[in-house]
């Protein structure tokens, strides 16, 4: 570890310097620097130490000795050295470390160089002494790491224990060995030394020699029945081409069989013929072709009846169908009728066809001369082939009928008009309907394109089939009208606004009404939900339909206003009080006036019955309209003062009687008296004064801000009630020892301020005077308790707050028995048997001190 020693400190010298300087400042009244006038201090009188009468110059005694403009924070150490006080006193790149002075670093943050990033003992170093780290050797390829140890000077030592290999060496298990030549193979690689399936096979393996280098091994011999394949000893096995006893075809008329060869491996044998009976080779077997039977070695169509299927019989070894049928798809069929074989095998009719004389025709049709015809409708084959209808007839369900008619149950009818066969046979129209164009329709409706429609209201068939109303129109009684209009007498009108047809045709609103949304309403009204409403006055429809005013508000000129207010130009105003809309909208009161009950009156006056009066003075309207003061009687004069009826003192107009008589003391000015402001006994708060019969806030101090409740203005300072401003501070004259009774009156340390009087400690205030209740004859024990007067030789006195007879020959002695002899007089201040009073005995172990047992 590195150790950095500090210079020795002369603490005793510093203490001596401080004491000497202090002594000189006290007894020599020095101001500023300390100077020693002893030998050796001539060159440094303000930076000199006295060492046994001989002066020694030092660098500094105080911080000031060390400082300059450049070194503004330097300090003086106890050993009289100037050191830095902050980094500002140090050269660039150094830092302040107290009494150590300027150093390279105090923490790792100050060490910014990569190879010296740790701060140790104020120096930036690479490491801490004793630390270790792994390292790699030099001069070759690393093989094993070594260790570096940090030296005492903070630098890393040399790398110990590291192993490096030269260019002709390699690292094996942390050791360097000779390098190998180029490897001829890869580890565990194998190659064959024999070819094909030569047995036993031979091979070589790629192995490591004693030096760890790869090389081919000596020849290795495989097992007796093994051959070498791709370097692997492989057991010999047959490669069979077939399974024993399997057969295969050799062309169409021969086959061969799988047998073992001389090596015991399966091989195909020579071929065998299938003979001359017509058999062919199939999957190694000689069989008759499909559809042929083996009849004693000869292939024929059938050998017996059991060999024929699908209704055939075996005749002369041939399967044949009954006469008139053909063999199709495994069975005998009639090609004239069979839907799956109609006219030819596999010619299939679809699901809606039938086979008619060998021709696929739709169901219900006939094959007439190779053509499918409908006998129900074909006029040339009506009811059967060759039956022809006349030129003015049609074929209807196999019967010739006049054109436009149908065969219904063997009778020709008109389906457009026949209500029992409307449109089709058997479709009868319900009661109340009739057949119109072959469609059953209700009375008043017509068949238009297969749909029953009302020509009076159908937009697509308005008035007649096919007449379509344009976009934006609808059909009204057979006439196309614009949406919202109706047909009245062949003319389209708007029933919501037409005064002659309001809501319905021919409903007139008359000369004084107008049609609003189909309802006749008076002028100025609108239709709201089917009712005629005045939007200017309706509280449920104020300004617009459905806009209801809140509770407590009314509709004024279409605007919701609080009760008692009126809408003026869209703003709610109180016409009784609004100075710009007084009495009615737009009436503006002039300057100096205000609106009182809808009348512009001078400020301070009110409207009483249409006349402006002053309610503060008017006897007929005192305080409010109609409040009349009682008439004058005798010397008492009733008058209105500040809006209240009062008895006026006859000798001064503004004075009113506030108690029984009419003397000056009983008459008060209610306009200025803060205790009777505006009325008798109406006292203003402490922070207000009475001005014109009203309690108003008093501006206080330079800021002219009023005082808070419970305060008043005392010499431009807000103080609590009972306090007074003394030199800018609120004090209580009753108990402030520095301002007792008045500003600046100071009680001594042995006094207490009692209700504005400086009294000695232990005294109380009785009748405005300071008294000692323990000794005062007129206030003995309590205020007003007077001791009996002196008579003869007996003197009454106050002892310890009690009235007693004093022995005349000694002040502290009192009479505790009949006479006044020395034996009968006791000192109640010290006597343990008469402590504080006669016959009051202190407990054992107690003493009587100042008339109290302790």
Task: Walk me through the structure.
The structure is a single chain. With 854 residues, this protein is mainly β. Among the domains are: 47 residues, no CATH class; 46 residues, no CATH class; 87 residues, no CATH class; 32 residues, no CATH class; 40 residues, no CATH class; 70 residues, no CATH class; 33 residues, no CATH class. Helices cover 2% and strands 33% of the residues. The protein contains one helix and 82 strands. Strands 15, 16, 17 and 18 form a four-stranded antiparallel sheet that branches. Strand 7 and strand 8 form a beta hairpin. The longest helix has 17 residues. The protein is flat, with a radius of gyration of 71 Å. The two termini are 72 Å apart. The N terminus is likely disordered.
Q: Which spans have pLDDT < 50 for at least 5 consecutive residues?
A: 1-34
Average pLDDT taken over every residue: 85
Amount of beta strand: 25-35%
User: What spatial form do the alpha-carbon principal axes imply?
Assistant: flat
Helix share, percent: under 10%
Report the C-alpha radius of gyration, rounded.
71 Å
In angstroms, what separates the terminal alpha carbons?
Answer: 72 Å
Specify the structural class. Answer: mainly beta
How many extended strands? 82
Number of helices: 1
User: Main β-sheet: number of strands, strand sense, barrel status?
Assistant: 4 strands, antiparallel
